[in-house]
Amino acid sequence: MFCRKAIILLFLFIILPFLIITVSGQEGSPVSKSEIIDNVGGRDTVKNLEFSAIGYENRTIRIQDSEKYLTVQLVPKVYSLEETTVSTGYQIKPRERVTGSFELVGRSQIDRRIHQNVLEQLNGRVASIRFDVPNVSSNVTPKMNIRGRNTIFSNDQPLYILDNMAYDGDITLINSNDIESITVLKDAAASSIWGARAGNGVVVIRTKAGKENDRPTVSFNSSLAYAPKPDLSRLKRISSSDFIDFETMLFNKGYYDSQLTRPYPVAQTPVVETLVLLRNGLIDAQTASSRIDRLRTIDVRDDVERYLYTNKLVQQYGINIRGGNSALRYFLSANYDHNKEDKVKNSNNRFSIRSNTSYQLGKKLELTSNTVFSQKTLTNLYPSTLNDLTSFSLGSGKFLYPYAELAAEDGAYLSLPNGLRDTFKESAMEKGLLDWTFTPLDEIYHNTSSATNKSTEYLFNPSLLYRPIEGVSLVANYQYQKQVGNQQTLRDRNSYDVRNLINRFAQVSATGVVSFPIPVGHILQTEAGEQRSQQGRVQANFERSVATNHHIDAMLGMEVRENRIIDHSNIAYGYAERGLVSVPVDYVTRYKYYDASGSGNIPYGVGMTSTTTRFFSYFGNLAYTFKGRYSLSGSARVDQSNLFGVKTNNRKVPLWSMGGLWHIHQEDWFKTDWIDKLSLRSTFGYSGNVGDAVGITTITLSNAYLTNAARADVQNPPNESLRWEKNRLLNFGLDFGFLKNRLSGSLEYYAKRNTDLLSNSDIDPTTGLGNLSGKSVFLGNVATTTGNGVDLTLNTVNIRQPKFAWESAIVFSVNHSKVQEYYSQSTTAQSYINSNNSVTPLIGYPVYTVFGYQWAGLDPENGMPRGYLDGEISNEYSKIMNAPVGTLAYYGPAKATVFGALTNTLRYGDLSLTFNLGYRFGSYFKRSSISYAMMATSWAGHADYADRWQQSGDEKRTDVPALVYPFNGNATSFYIGSSALVEKADYIALHDVYLDYSVRPELLKRYGIKSLVLKGYVSNLGYLWLANSRGLDPFYENTVRPQKSFTLGLNLTF
Fold this sequence. Notes:
Belongs to the TonB-dependent receptor family. Pfam families: Plug. It contains 17 helices and 47 strands. The chain is 13% helix and 42% strand. The protein starts with a helix and ends with a strand. Among the domains are: 2-64, no CATH class; 85-208, Ferric Hydroxamate Uptake Protein, Chain A, domain 1, CATH 2.170.130.10. The protein is mainly beta and 1054 residues long. Helix 5 runs antiparallel to helix 8 and helix 7 (270-279) packs antiparallel against helix 8 (285-296). It is globular.
């Protein structure tokens, strides 16, 4: 007895300390090691011990007291590819019979990333998906592309499917806690069944559901995330001392003289006002110098960080119950999120209730019902620029100057110049106008101005499944979705925004009597929108194995859909919340502005729009599998819509696909021990993309500028041939598994051609038709792009030991595309000098491009920028910018052509650690720099000012041009668009780190708890490597960057 106990002790505590053992008679629950010893070494009874450990198959040993020694050998586990199913939104198929290209993100992966936005679950996990920015916001639907951009000016976002029906709402209303899996359909065979809406790929989201014969299970999730205030010191802003020197130079050269003497003198900074006082003899030089020297020591970012930004806190709570029996399956959930944003007075809340129930009405009939209520409320400071350093407005296109003070040393709130000079405003207030001072912190902390945006969604999705005979099912689906959006902006009567508007329209009679056409009081702006979507679908499914070797899977159906959007807006002046009353105003009369800068109408905020789109479709799908090794598939769909021209609807040309699959590893002649799976796939077909144009004539109603009479402009002429954009895609795939699936994944190559893309097309100018800009163009199916790429998904089991396991997942994508046909391209170079995210198509190049004027350095004589004209160094900027486009230097695309992620998961006992590295290569961006004229007019300067050319020889150390006055606008435009500012956007970043600890069940059993998982999550960890030598962030180069976020959470199951 003693010997046996000693051996067990050695085995349990030294050899396998993380071994889990279950004793028969304990209801299958793991027990402690001391209990194992007592049970084994106790009474003369027969016991069953089940041994389990990471990386090994479970083993059950039958023992009795008469045995002295135990020999337990655990067999290493063979890691097989997960036999999952693939949901296309119409059908659920075993992945082994799917010919198309898809990727699945399951619940286990979703649990390892704590984030409010469900689409963040795809970031770095699915090959071919590229987000516009690597940091997904929780409040906004992120922009992403699947296998590159497939259009030019139309919608480039994928189609979202929620529980088998197209989802037209706000994707941020869907809570990740309710999601079971997300499937991404990437090629024509996988997505063409969705027809004219699937050209950008399809994302299929399946929510959780109850399970048959499953006891009720209650789960509770909670998390708290913290992110510190943004780091404003990294912004490339001119120093206060440099900006003061710049202003002093301009003052001495008379730059401000015209601004100071005009009838409506514009606001000036404290330095300029001090220099005016000095010039007018109102203060002496010592006083002026003392004032200015004090301002040199101030950095506005200190006050901005103290008063305008705050630490971000995100709270998430969720509870659900699921279960079922032979007659009923159910899943019920409630979720609540509360966010305090990193800008003061900004917050958002999200609440949702979801019910998924399935009723077995008989042996052949099943009813499923999904019901959802969701609501999201965003509350922001108004105006929104008040708590944002980069957009903080001081009127007339001016921003916070570097030495602005928001509060005095004693904490008293200080006023800032805004719009007009303080002397002008003081004179106006003496005449009876409202207080015209602007004190930012009063606006933030003492006024009630705010903008509240509330989105509410109601969704009802019932389906009826009838199985008349084996292998045949009839399905009827219906979905009603209603989203109501209400935005209410309350502008407090005491806010500067309202006081400034009232004063601007103030009228002074010849006798000096002041009247206010805009009544003194609050201003309430409301915008309300409603989207009602209805979808109905009936389909017949056939699935049956014939004899032993044949399997047939077929589907036939039809679908109808209507989506109606109604938006209307209103504005109430002199609004009083008590009584809900307002004062009518005269919108017709043009009033002279008080500052004599012109005249205008009182802002009119009343309007209404309505859009209705309808689709009617019929479709079919057929798949055949022979011996489980060979599969062929085909699908076709015809779409008709009120968006298309009559000729397109009459032709009824289908979008279709076909595909094949061969499981080579199942061949009798293929016997290789180290290859567990080897399958070839190939698909070809067409899907579509519905653009923003319509086939009927559309007009825009407005009022004439001078007469205020009603007018109408033809925005788009009729086009009976208007059709959807068509996407042709060829895909080859190789699925593999080696070394008992310790190495597994897929490799795919695709080639695509996107035709009939909507773009500007010329109209015969003699027709008299044109848009509001006066150009004789309309949107027609006239452009073509092509592309190709490679997707690699690789999963490895690096180490599998009883104590320790290490697994890796590699996602690697290559994507190239270019414009093949485009009928409205410009020929001048300056047309293609754009921002990093602008679309300016040019045949033979990607949709997003980075061009630059060829750079010849700075002139050693005067520090002015130089380029090339006709192969010679030149400073004739106008000619360079208007030269042919071929004279530009092309660097590459603005979107990465190589991108992906590396995820590592380490497990040690009950601890699990996952960290994700993301990377992007092959793209470029233009960094920001100095514009002297812009700095003078906007008060916003760049740190490159300190690095400018100042004397001969500086051209060897810098590319920043000299400061020359009067400003040379063409020289600045050339420099800002030149190759000198082009940088590589390549990077490797640590995206996030996740850590969890699963509390051992034996510790929870006495409390009635099934499982408890404690979680930690850190995201936005920053860059490990940047290709550009300046260390610039390619996405937040000179803007506020999201901070590191730290999250603690738990998952509790009863």
